[in-house]
Design brief:
By secondary structure, the protein is mainly alpha-helical. It folds into three domains: 84 residues, Orthogonal Bundle (Multidrug-efflux Transporter Regulator, Chain: A, Domain 2); 65 residues, no CATH class; 42 residues. It has a two-stranded antiparallel sheet. Helix 8 crosses helix 9.
Length: 215
């Protein structure tokens, strides 16, 4: 049977079936016809695809399924590994539900207040604190520390997320970087002007030949 019928029989999409084929979970019979590669799936392939779909719904990873297909004797340890992963996920979900059930979180007036209360409930280690601007309170602390180290007055904390990010990014660039950026910009526009000139010169020359009388 063709891949469309296999997808209908198994409930999988054609893209998913091709992905499982690339991973080596299923190997259908292939035949080249009229410069096209045709796949032929048997009933055994349908049963295998259905089994893979059932394992995927049970949180088995693709690499784990491939391992079980090649080494069935490792089923017990793989099942135990999936169970431990499910237990960890359930524990994390229960912890998150308990955290979100706290009434003080619902009383937060803005995002920053909500983030502060979450940080107070679940302290983040300093080494694990992101520095990419995704945690707004950490950004604010860094910005305030930089401003106070320069001898400036303590800054009022911004109330909006975008304003806080702009405050974090509002810092002077080194002079070398500014010179390099200016040089790159001049080079870019010089190349653009040269390209435009190369396009316009033949057109102007042809117009001149057409309109200027011969001497």
């Amino acid at each position: 049977m063709r891949i469309k019928e296999a997808a209908k029989r198994t409930g999988l999409t054609e893209k998913t079936i091709r992905y499982y084929e690339e991973c080596g979970l299923v190997v259908p019979h292939k035949e080249l016809r009229y410069d096209r590669l045709w796949r032929d799936y048997s009933e055994e392939h349908i049963r295998l695809l259905s089994a893979v779909a059932a394992l995927r719904r049970s949180s088995f990873r693709v690499e784990e399924i491939a391992l079980l297909l090649s080494e069935p004797e490792r089923i017990p340890e793989t099942v135990e590994s999936v169970r431990e992963r499910a237990e960890k996920t359930r524990a994390e979900a229960e912890k998150l539900c308990a955290l979100l059930a706290r009434p003080e979180l619902r009383e937060a007036l803005d995002v920053l207040a909500l983030a502060r209360r979450l940080e107070a409930a679940v302290p983040v280690p300093e080494a694990a604190a992101p520095s990419t601007g995704k945690r707004l309170p950490a950004i604010w602390r860094e910005y305030r520390k930089r401003r106070e180290s320069r001898g400036g007055p303590p800054a009022a904390q911004p109330k909006a997320g975008p304003a806080l990010v702009r405050a974090h990014r509002r810092r002077g660039k080194p002079i070398v970087r500014q010179v390099l950026l200016l040089g790159a910009s001049c080079l870019k526009w010089t190349l653009v002007a040269a390209g435009v000139g190369m396009l316009l010169f033949p057109m102007v020359f042809l117009i001149w030949l057409y309109f200027v009388p011969e001497f």
